[in-house]
C-alpha cells in the first residue's frame, strides 16, 4: 500500500467527491457574496446612463462574474481543503486510514487529482472566458457604461505622442496594419506646447506612415475657423501600430498567445517587457496554485492528532495558504518593477511554498 500513489479506488472516489463538492459550494458562496457587494458599488454608475436598466445590470454581472471566479478559485480550494480534512479528522476517518496503512500523501492524493483538473480547467477558463470578459468590461467602463463596444479586443481612450503633437482615439480595434481608430483627434502644437490646430475625424486607418483620416475637420485655434477637408488626409506620421500596442498592452485582457505577440512587438521597439513577461508566466503559475492548497491545508488533518487543537490547526493551514497569496502578489509586483527576473517573480513563491508544505507534512506525519 505504501508504494502506491492512490489509496483504493473506493477511497479515492469518496475523498475526491467530498472535496469537489466543497470546492464548488465554497466558490459559489464567495462569488455570490462578492458579486452582490460589487454590484451595489457599481449599479449607481450603470443606471446613471440614460437607457440602462436591468438588462445592463445583468450584463455587468455576466462580465464581472468570470473575473471573480478566476480570482477566488484558489481561495475556494484552500477553504474546501481545510473543511474536507477537518471533517475526515473529526469523524476519525484519518485515523482509520492510517491504521489501514495509508500514508498522508496517499490520503491527499485524491485532493491533488481534483486540484490538477481544476488547475487545467482554470487555465482554459482564463484564456477563453476571463480575458474576453475583462477586455469587454474595461472597454465598457472606459465608455462610462454607454453602448458596449462590439470588439472585445478594442482599446479605449488611447493617447499617443506624435513628436510635439498629440493623437487621441476614443476606440482602437484590430491589430497591426489592419488597426482602425474611431473618433480620432489630432492636436498640432507649436514649440512652446500651445495647441495651434485640432483635426477630428470619425475614423482613421494606418497609411504607413501616418494615419489616414476619413473626411477630417480642422479647427484653427488662432482664427477660430473650422474647415472641412475634402477627401482624406494623412496625419500623425510619427505614430505606428506598435506604439498603440505598447501604450495599451493589458495582460489581464489578453490571452497568452496574444500577449506573446505584444511582448515581441514591445521588445522589438526597444522597451522593457519585465512586467508583461512576469504576467505571462503568472498565467501558468497562477492556475497551478490550486495544486498547493491541499499540501498547505494538510496540517488541519495531520500532526498533533491527539492534542484536540483542531481549530488552531485549521488557522495554521489558512495562514499558510494566505501567506502564499500575499507573497505571490508581492513577487509579481517586484517582477513588474524589475526587482526580480520575470521567471523568478512568477514561480519562486510556488516552489517555496511547495517545499514548505512538504516539509511540514513530512516532519509532522511521515
UniProtKB/TrEMBL annotation:
The answer to whether UniProt assigns keyword Transmembrane helix to this entry is yes
The molecule here is called LPS export ABC transporter permease LptG
Tell me what organism the protein belongs to.
Answer: Novosphingobium pituita
Q: Where in the cell is it found?
A: Cell membrane
| Membrane topology field | Multi-pass membrane protein
Pfam families listed in its UniProt record: LptF_LptG (PF03739)
Instruction: Cite the entry's keywords alphabetically.
Output: Cell membrane, Membrane, Transmembrane, Transmembrane helix
Q: Which residues cross the membrane?
A: 12-37, 68-86, 107-125, 284-303, 310-327, 339-362
Amino acid at each position: 500500500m505504501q508504494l502506491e500513489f492512490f489509496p483504493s479506488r473506493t477511497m479515492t472516489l469518496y475523498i475526491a467527491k467530498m472535496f469537489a463538492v466543497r470546492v464548488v459550494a465554497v466558490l459559489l458562496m464567495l462569488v455570490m457574496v462578492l458579486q452582490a457587494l460589487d454590484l451595489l458599488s457599481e449599479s449607481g454608475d450603470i443606471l446613471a446612463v440614460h437607457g440602462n436598466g436591468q438588462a445592463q445590470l445583468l450584463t455587468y454581472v455576466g462580465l464581472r462574474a468570470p473575473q471573480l471566479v478566476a480570482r477566488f478559485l484558489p481561495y475556494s480550494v484552500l477553504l474546501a481543503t481545510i473543511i474536507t480534512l477537518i471533517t475526515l479528522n473529526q469523524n476519525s476517518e484519518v485515523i482509520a486510514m492510517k491504521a489501514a496503512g495509508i500514508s498522508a500523501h496517499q490520503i491527499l492524493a485524491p485532493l491533488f487529482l481534483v486540484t490538477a483538473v481544476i488547475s487545467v480547467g482554470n487555465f482554459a477558463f482564463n484564456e477563453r472566458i476571463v480575458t474576453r470578459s475583462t477586455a469587454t468590461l474595461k472597454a465598457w467602463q472606459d465608455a462610462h457604461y454607454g453602448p458596449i463596444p462590439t470588439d472585445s479586443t478594442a482599446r479605449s481612450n488611447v493617447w499617443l505622442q506624435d513628436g510635439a503633437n498629440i493623437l487621441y482615439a476614443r476606440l482602437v480595434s484590430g491589430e497591426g496594419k489592419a488597426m482602425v481608430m474611431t473618433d480620432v483627434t489630432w492636436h498640432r502644437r507649436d514649440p512652446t506646447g500651445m495647441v495651434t490646430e485640432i483635426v477630428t475625424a470619425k475614423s482613421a486607418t494606418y497609411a504607413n506612415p501616418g494615419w489616414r483620416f476619413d473626411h477630417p475637420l480642422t479647427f484653427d485655434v488662432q482664427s477660430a475657423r473650422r474647415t472641412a477637408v475634402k477627401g482624406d488626409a494623412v496625419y500623425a506620421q510619427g505614430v505606428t501600430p506598435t506604439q498603440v500596442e505598447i501604450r495599451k498592452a493589458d495582460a489581464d485582457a489578453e490571452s497568452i498567445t496574444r500577449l506573446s505577440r505584444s511582448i515581441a512587438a514591445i521588445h522589438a521597439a526597444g522597451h522593457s517587457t519585465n512586467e508583461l513577461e512576469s504576467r505571462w508566466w503568472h498565467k501558468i503559475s497562477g492556475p497551478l496554485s490550486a495544486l498547493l492548497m491541499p499540501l498547505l491545508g494538510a496540517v488541519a488533518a495531520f500532526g498533533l492528532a491527539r492534542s484536540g487543537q483542531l481549530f488552531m490547526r485549521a488557522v495554521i493551514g489558512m495562514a499558510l495558504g494566505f501567506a502564499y497569496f500575499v507573497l505571490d502578489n508581492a513577487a509579481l509586483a517586484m517582477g513588474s518593477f524589475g526587482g526580480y527576473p520575470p521567471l523568478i517573480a512568477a514561480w519562486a513563491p510556488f516552489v517555496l511554498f511547495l517545499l514548505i508544505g512538504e516539509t511540514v507534512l513530512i516532519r509532522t506525519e511521515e
